[in-house]
TrEMBL record:
<dbReference type="InterPro" id="IPR001110">
    <property type="entry name" value="UPF0012_CS"/>
</dbReference>
<feature type="domain" description="CN hydrolase">
    <location>
        <begin position="3"/>
        <end position="239"/>
    </location>
</feature>
<keyword id="KW-0378">Hydrolase</keyword>
<dbReference type="GO" id="GO:0106008">
    <property type="term" value="F:2-oxoglutaramate amidase activity"/>
</dbReference>
<dbReference type="InterPro" id="IPR003010">
    <property type="entry name" value="C-N_Hydrolase"/>
</dbReference>
<dbReference type="InterPro" id="IPR036526">
    <property type="entry name" value="C-N_Hydrolase_sf"/>
</dbReference>
<protein>
    <submittedName>
        <fullName>2-oxoglutaramate amidase</fullName>
        <ecNumber>3.5.1.111</ecNumber>
    </submittedName>
</protein>
<dbReference type="Pfam" id="PF00795">
    <property type="entry name" value="CN_hydrolase"/>
</dbReference>
<comment type="similarity">
    <text>Belongs to the carbon-nitrogen hydrolase superfamily. NIT1/NIT2 family.</text>
</comment>
């Protein structure tokens, strides 16, 4: 099955949801004009890492920025995935990625499992308590956010549970962009699935973000990779490629499940 994906590599305006929603709106229009089925946005794209202002900037899922995304998804008939600051009924904050589908519905939501201490997430946010696999119209899709990329067991659990792709919104600094590229490729190759990752660009405080948003196929090839500027890039993937790669090198059948847990 063919799936057209756009990555909206945004230069996030810190602490200004209105400015970022305007950018997301332009990106959704651009992606829709390019024929995309799914638009992926970065991690915390509506606010950036201004976690000290979570009380003012976080929204309950379904409200505020999440409702704006639903409006964009309906208007442009496009699925949208990206993470924003959320709050729950007890006013606890999380880094939440929602898969928003046209027609006024969300297919699922995921709270970042591994909080990134270097950017103080552990001081402000509550970690997620479970992996989330979305039943998308193109097959099962695992949800991950940025630092989660360093934890291969999350990706291997998704693959074992039938994922054909994992979507990763991120704010990954330029200084470690080689880790970003290497880990994304490794996760795709070792799990023989598509890895779809959207980073941001620009600078927030002292941190410069690395861009290089990309889609990686189950063989480790990179059909599309952005540079280090704000842009929307689009590519078409064929989910049937997964069966071809898994037939060529049957790592899932060859796993030593008698020795290791997956
Ligand atoms: N926002 C993040 O989770 C950043 C993760 C990161 O930079 C890393 O090196 O890992």
């Amino acid at each position: 099955m063919k799936l057209t994906i756009s990555l909206g590599q945004m230069d996030i305006v810190p602490g200004d949801p209105d400015a970022n929603i305007a950018k997301a709106s332009q990106m959704a229009r651009h992606a829709s004009d390019a024929g995309a089925d799914v638009l992926v946005l970065p991690e915390l794209w509506s606010t950036g890492y201004v976690l000290k202002r979570a009380g003012e900037l976080a929204d309950a899922v379904g409200h505020g920025v999440f409702a704006e995304v639903q409006r964009l998804s309906d208007e442009h008939a496009i699925h949208i995935v990206g993470s924003c600051l959320s709050k729950d009924v007890s006013n606890q904050y999380a880094n939440t990625s929602v898969w928003t589908a046209p027609g006024g519905r969300a297919l699922g939501q995921y709270n970042k499992l591994h909080l990134f201490r270097l950017m103080h997430e552990d001081q402000f946010l509550k970690p997620g308590d479970r992996p989330v696999l979305i039943d998308s119209p193109w097959g099962k899709a695992g949800m991950a956010i940025c630092y989660d990329l360093r934890f291969p067991e999350l990706f291997s659990s998704y693959a074992t549970d039938g994922a054909i792709m994992v979507l990763i919104p991120a704010q990954w600094p330029k200084v470690r962009v080689e880790h970003w590229k290497t880990l994304l490729r490794a996760r795709a190759i070792e799990n023989q699935m598509f890895v779809i990752a959207c980073n941001c660009v620009g600078q927030i405080g002292p941190t410069v973000f690395g861009g290089h948003s990309c889609v990686i196929d189950p063989w480790g090839e990179i059909p599309i990779q952005a540079g280090d500027q704000e842009e929307v890039v689009t590519t078409v993937i064929d989910t049937d490629q997964i069966d071809d790669v898994r037939a060529r090198i049957p790592v899932f059948s060859d796993r030593r499940t008698d020795l290791f847990q997956f």
